[in-house]
Structures
1.
Amino acid sequence: MKIIPLSEGKFTIDQSKVFVPFDALKDNLQLRMPGSLLVEIQPFVVITSKDILLLDTGLGFKRDGVLQLHQNLMDAGINPSEVTKVLISHLHKDHAGGTGIVREGSEKRLSFPGATYYVQRKELAFAFEKGFPSFNTQELECLRNQSQVILLDGNGVIDGYIHYEITGAHSLYHQVFRIKENEETIFFGGDEAPQLQQMKHRFVAKYDFDGRKAMELRQKWWELGEKERWSFLFYHDVKNPVWKF
């Protein structure tokens, strides 16, 4: 399998939940709001023998009028129309902002009309119940009542090799993915396994729905990943997008 990180850049985020671009060459983290976190925003493409998979969809920002996610795909040599499946860990705006796109003269539509989207049913319902600022429901409207959106219930397997598990530690209905092909396993933990250092150290994050559960899950995944030689994808790591045992 081939892994391609699709970095949208570095950002700081504070209690306002606004993502502010951060340039390490000229910006000073100490001058940002107290408590600001420095994070990467980084969807991933995984190319398998069956699919071109997209894992999460970024912030949904545009660059020169083009969805940045689309441009990043094209820069990697992939036409957005070639994406076959979109796997979404959860629907917070930094992970699902690129789910839809506005076409001139029409309503918002899915940004990958040729792909099948996989979202937890309860996560979608909760997003509309909870709303702003964690969820941008205008961006998510295009996930409703669409034939190419598969609403998942709990745990299962897609096409015999994409395993999904609802874990509910970062957010109530958060899910993680294990992609298994030819004795290789790629693990994507979304915001429950967002950075390498959090896997190596016991750390309870205040921004998690259940911080202790998230910490325990990270420890379990890291130990199993080391034993089975997994590749980890870290959505928010500013230095280590991929870690392979």
Note: The radius of gyration is 17 Å.
2.
Amino acid sequence: MSIKRSSFVMSGADFFASEIPIFVNRAYENFEMHTHSHEFVEITYVSEGAGMHYIADEAVPAEQGTLFFIPVGHSHVFRPKTPQKERPLIVYNCLFPVSYLSGLRAAFPQAEEICGFFGDEGLHWFSVKDTAGAYHLLFQELYREFSAKPPGYLAVLASLIVRILTGMYRDRLQTAAPAGDKPQWLAVDEAIAYIRSHYAGSLKLGALAAGANLSERQFSRLFQAQTGMSFTGYVQSIRMEAACRLLRTGRAGVAEIAAGVGYADLKFFHRLFKQKIGMTPRQYRNAALAEEGPHR
């Protein structure tokens, strides 16, 4: 598909209110939008669907969980994979002027290095993958705060944007670091992302330690220091979190949920759930249903 560069430049005046130097939306991408650049910074998160992102003379797959940093002046456009309405490409967009980074730097002096990185005029666009779903949660909260505008929402928006930028900065360092030369905290970060994405499968401490080029003892010590939990305890907590979510929101039976979060032994799952949550899975589901009942 041929995408021509365009001289169309989006102005910040079309998006930013006088006292709100941020704009957040959730958009359905289509084939009508023209290729464009803008006078502001854009961070886009692909929430649903798939397609292509044509940016700076490159064609990049836009898949669910992909996050793009688009600096000022970069010509780009998204295109869904298909024009079928039942298979849309949906993205969250967070826009702000470059000057907003100076405000963040003043409000969060500890993030000076990060704000300086994203404020660099020579910074090229880049993308990262949301392997653990953390960015999706941040963008959902960002959109809710911007749309509802409850008391203190500008402070919450600023803190969320700092978290997003910090995550992208770390991801950028991670991909730029030579193999075998990554800081040790990245080993735990990568392990946590893998656990959160593969908690239902077979997770072996030895395999994750080997992937980080660390001994099991070194890896265990780092993991405990950075999470406050042992490897086994952390895996169990993630699985219980998933089980609670499924019990609250789904209709699957307890045995199916146990298997779905990684436990083939139903008796062990029951015992562990009661130990961690303080009640049986059935009691938890009934309590959740009773709590939601009056609001239905």
Note: The first helix runs from residue 99 to 107.
